[in-house]
Every structure is written in C-alpha cells, then in structure tokens.
Design goal:
By secondary structure, the chain is an alpha+beta fold. It has seven helices and nine strands; from the N terminus they run H-E-H-H-H-H-E-E-E-E-E-E-H-E-H-E.
C-alpha cells in the first residue's frame, strides 16, 4: 500500500487566514478507526464463522476430525491477509488525518495517497453531538446547514455513517473529546451570538432565541 506524506499540523495552521486563533487540534485514534470504520472485529468474526462452517461441513460429508480441521485451516492465511490490509489502512488514515478547530472554522485533512483538505466554516454548522465509546474515544458529528453540502466521498472516513443524502462531517476516534467539545461549544456559541447581533440591531421588534453551540451527549453517532 502506498502512503502519502504525513500531514503536519503546522502546515494547516499556516494556511489559516491571518487573525484566526487555533482552539484545538488532534487526530483519530488508530484502534478506533480499525474497529468502527474498517470493522476489523466483524471481519475476524466472519472468517471465524466461515472456518467453523467449513469444519462442520467436512465432518458432515464424512471426513475425519483431522481432515476437517485441515479443510478449515486453509481460510486462516486469507483471513490474516484481509485483516492485515484493514489494520494497515486504518493505521494509514490515522497517521495522515488531522483535525484543526479555530474560532472561525473546522479544517479536516485526510487521505493516504491523495490527501484532501476540507474547510467547514462555523457559519455552516447548526449543531453537533458527541458519541462516547467504551474504549475511551468519542466521535463528534456535526450538523451542516442544508444549504451547504459536502460530498460524502470527500469527507470519508471522517463522515457520519449512513448519511448519504445529507453527508455530515464527523471527527472520529478522538481521545481528548472533552477538550474538543468544550472549545467547539464555545466557538459555536460565540460565532452565532455575533451573527445574531446585527439581526437584533436591525429588527429590534422581532423576538428570536439566540443560537448556541451547546454540544449534547448521545449514546451513538
């Protein structure tokens, strides 16, 4: 597998417009990507079930237990190769993916052979959530204004699963999720408060609830 150069966070910082403040930066956890994106455990269970079925089928056809075990074991090299490819791909994406949050935007840099940078202004973000997992990592999906769309293939694997009609970016496998959630919530609240101020000034007779950047916790993304 050919890997592209590792993305350096300082390169992303250098590309930010002058005056923006970096609030948080991070990368996905390799094991979390392997489990929840590339489904390494499910693939292992599949090959295990396939080997067990092959063993039972050989016994049913009259083979001895030793021969049946031999028939089942031929699956192991294929299973090892597939799992190694999945694990290596997860490691490659974890190494080359970077997330950077400023007071104006979220920047996501991902890709192994052909890295792609996705720029998500906070003005496009209308909501966010956090999905915590038993391994200590969390996924943070964002809800984007329907008027602004980002292609699912451009976002993947930093995309919310099963959201093809309205793709949504999702920061995956974050270890320091509390810091990210705190900074994201404050940045969204400050941004929407600033955006709402001119509207209240120009139309003082209209009542509207100020938007906030509250990030609720959910059980799953």
């Amino acid at each position: 597998m050919t890997r592209g150069p590792e993305v350096r966070v300082d390169e992303l910082v250098a590309r930010l417009p002058k005056g923006e403040t970096v609030l948080w930066q991070g990368r996905p956890d390799r094991a979390a990507l392997a489990r929840r994106v590339f489904r390494v455990r499910e693939a292992g269970f599949y090959f295990g079930a396939l080997a067990l079925w092959r063993f039972a089928s050989s016994l049913y056809d009259g083979s001895s237990a030793l021969d049946a075990a031999g028939h089942a074991l031929w699956i192991l090299p294929l299973a090892a190769a597939c799992l190694a490819i999945l694990a290596a791909t997860a490691a490659g994406y974890a190494k080359t993916t970077r997330y950077l949050l400023s007071d104006k935007r979220l920047v996501m840099r991902t890709g192994i052979a052909m890295p792609i940078t996705v720029n998500v202004p906070l003005a496009y973000v209308v909501g966010a959530a956090v999905a915590r997992h038993p391994d200590g990592t969390a996924d943070v999906p964002l809800e984007i204004d329907p008027e602004h769309r980002i292609a699912w293939l451009v976002l993947w694997p930093s995309s919310r699963p099963w959201r093809f009609a309205r793709p949504a970016p999702m920061l995956r496998g974050i270890r320091d999720a509390d810091a990210l959630v705190s900074h994201l919530s404050a940045a969204l609240e400050a941004h929407h408060r600033t955006a709402a101020a001119p509207e209240r000034t120009s139309a003082p007779t209209e009542r509207s609830e100020p938007a906030t950047g509250h990030v609720p916790a959910t059980a799953a993304a």
